[in-house]
Automatic annotation (TrEMBL):
Pfam families: SusD-like_3, SusD_RagB. Residues 332-401 form the RagB/SusD domain. Keywords: Cell outer membrane, Membrane, Signal. The keyword Signal applies. It comes from the Bacteria. GO terms for cellular component: cell outer membrane. This is RagB/SusD family nutrient uptake outer membrane protein. Belongs to the SusD family.
Length: 447
């Protein structure tokens, strides 16, 4: 299956690639007079522009996570912004993560507004287009919130801290201000709940959102804010749609994972980043030690370099891509369901879900986990580390688990100096990009 990059006679490429600086609307100002979408085909083409909507999602959270390290020599050779990001510089952030994601949001707002003006009797198609746009807007706001605002759970008391600017229209003259974190989550969940009834059960491309994708995203978001009851509910609804877990016994270890494989629910990738490039990032041996004999992920996820270090190769984007898959997949949904069941005290059901999943990750030596296998929640959380690395998921886990009292510390060591990101550090909200701060009245993150 190929990416569905549809130009529609240059419809949105003309708009979105002629972006000029603007203090308002987050420094994104398209010339909307160049092309005016006038049909449902035009609007679908805007959502099907994979270069804008699927391939360049934020990566800063994964850069700050604890899945990898780099060598002193590589650190010296990379560009300055990557060096600063790697050591958690208090003012560093990626402008591209901000601008490219708000470009997605702008695209969705143009679709939603234009949809209201188009007279077309195909109401079912109109509903599906609206639902897809709301899904994208929800996911884009959510990932921005994960990167540029502090962590939040329903049991924490920081809901009134600054979130991100919520952009719910395409007015380039509206002043951008930061909503509270709590209001941001409320809007994100509202968009997704409004989208859910009209998302299609089947899609021709995995780069289009489906009903399963809606359930999976709701499960991820509710998990990230510690609402385990709702997260488990939507994980269950997603599983009831019919999910497939790849049997790793049948995967060719000499080839990369297939793009759009049967486990993928919704496909997006992160923007390219040097720090996460497998030729630069190294996997720590402490992480490798989590994979016992018989765990097939050890050979499918990692490759040994000439210098005896290890690199990650288990990217679900397939081929030789250096862009990280950060979409939605069945393995994540199974692990959300298992964790939520365990947190609700339903240990037997949690073990059943966990074992159904793990059976597909081990060779014939696999022994099902039981109540005597150790702390169940710890087992499940370790499986999240082992399964979802380099997916853009670990950052959210660190943030919510620290708010639950886990005190995870992310560490870097460069040229003999240690850099720490402690559990209560304000740098868990990356700084608003300097060029945004310079050209707007958006509030800076506290340090």
């Amino acid at each position: 299956m190929k990416y569905k990059i549809i130009s529609a006679v240059g419809l949105m490429l003309t708009i979105l690639f002629n972006i000029s600086s603007c203090k308002k609307y987050l420094d994104i100002k398209p010339d909307k007079s160049l092309v005016v979408p006038s049909s449902l085909n035009d609007l679908q083409a805007m959502l099907d522009d994979a270069m804008t909507m699927n391939l360049l999602w934020p990566i800063g959270g994964e850069v700050y996570s604890d899945n990898y390290y780099i060598t002193d020599s590589d650190w010296k050779s990379i560009q300055q912004i990557d060096r600063l990001m790697y050591i958690f510089d208090k003012e560093a952030s990626y402008s591209g993560d901000w601008f490219l994601t708000y470009r997605i949001i702008l695209n969705t707002n143009l679709v939603l507004e234009t949809l209201e003006k188009i007279e077309d009797r195909d109401t079912d198609r109109k509903k599906k287009i609206k639902a897809s746009a709301l899904f994208y807007r929800s996911m884009a706001h959510y990932i921005l919130l994960q990167e540029f605002s502090l962590g939040y759970t329903i049991s924490s008391k920081n809901g009134d801290e600054p979130g991100i600017p919520l952009k719910l229209n395409s007015d380039i003259n509206s002043e951008s201000t930061r909503s509270t974190i709590k209001d941001c989550y409320s809007t994100i969940l509202d968009d997704l709940q409004n989208a859910l009834p009209d998302l299609p059960s089947e899609v021709p491309y995995k780069t289009r959102p489906s009903k399963s994708a809606g359930y999976a995203l709701l499960a991820r978001i509710y998990l990230s804010i510690g609402n385990y009851k709702e997260a488990g509910k939507y994980a269950s609804l997603c599983m009831n749609q019919g999910l497939n877990i790849l049997d790793y016994n049948l995967i060719n270890s000499d080839a990369p994972f297939e793009r759009y494989n049967s486990e993928v629910i919704f496909h997006i990738t992160g923007n390219y980043n040097t720090l996460l490039d497998p030729t630069v990032s190294k996997v720590d041996t402490n992480l490798l030690s989590l994979y016992p004999p018989g765990d097939l992920r050890r050979r499918l996820f990692f490759s040994q370099n000439i210098d005896s270090t290890w690199s990650f190769r288990g990217n679900y984007d397939g081929s030789a891509s250096v862009q990280m898959f950060c979409g939605l997949a069945a393995d994540e949904v199974y692990l959300i369901q298992a964790e939520c069941l365990a947190r609700e005290g339903q240990d037997n059901d949690a073990l059943a879900v966990l074992n159904t999943f793990l059976k597909m990750r081990y060779d014939s030596s696999f022994t099902p986990r039981t109540a005597s296998s150790g702390n169940l929640l710890t087992l499940i959380l370790n499986e999240r580390i082992k399964e979802l690395l380099f997916r853009g998921v670990r950052w959210g886990d660190i943030r919510r688990l620290n708010l639950d009292g886990d005190n995870i510390v992310v560490q870097r060591k460069i040229q003999g100096k240690e850099y720490l990101l402690n559990h209560n550090d304000l740098r868990y909200a990356l700084q608003i990009p300097i060029d945004v701060l310079a050209q707007s009245h958006i509030q800076k993150n506290r340090r």
